[in-house]
Amino acid sequence: MRNLLLSVATVLMAGATVAAPAQSTQLPKGAAHNIVLVHGAFVDQTSWKPVADILTKKGYNVTLVENPLTSLAADVDATKQALAKQNGKTVLVGHSWGGVVITQAGDDPNVSALVYVSAFAPDVGESLASLAKSGPATEGAAAIHPDEKGNLYIDPKVFPSAVAADLPAEIAESLANHQLPLNHTAFEAPVDTAAWHDKPTFYVISTKDKVIAPEVQKIFANRMKAQTTEVAGSHASLVVHAKEVAAVIEKAALVK
Hints:
The chain has helices spanning 2-14, 49-57, 72-84, 98-105, 128-134, 139-142, 159-163, 169-177, 184-188, 214-224, 237-240, 242-253; strands at 34-38, 61-65, 90-95, 111-117, 144-146, 151-154, 182-183, 201-206, 227-231. By secondary structure, the protein is of the alpha/beta class.
């Protein structure tokens, strides 16, 4: 596992953008063949690479969205551009801030199911800022601060324990020191569409998350009437528990 995580960190820092070539594995009859993965704030799309590799090897067409993180509208547009390139049923997946993005972008007719992984899940009129105020304070949320340009970061000294406590220290520290900022306008922008009202929805709850409190994740999942799965991971559970997360996405792909 340590070697796997070290290789994941290398890919994250190198900025790789695509998963491995698809194999000829036969997917279950009627399954959605397309998976679109939307990353959260402070990291890039390669945070999804461990999950993407698992799904690609099983024959799914996997797309990693590269969010600019400059505004909600910009990230939604990037996701919709990715969705426009899919042919047929598509499972749309979001981690952390990516949950806000898929909530807004998920009304695309090709989207057959939504999957939230340790993610925010707003309703119409709610923003990341309003959701952050409504739940119990967490170590990670308290460590988010703007710079002089209004870009938001997590305090690098707090990042390793708050975001990635189950990753090796050198990886967590590297991620902390190479954060991609989220513009404050994205933090404050409310969604005007909540696709989960009309789409089958799944939620992976990370029970050791110190960014989005696990009890808040359960509130999101219950409000959406999502099928839930719990993993004993941090906010970085999409890396450490990639197999479990991929299994939930495969389940979502079987939705009729």
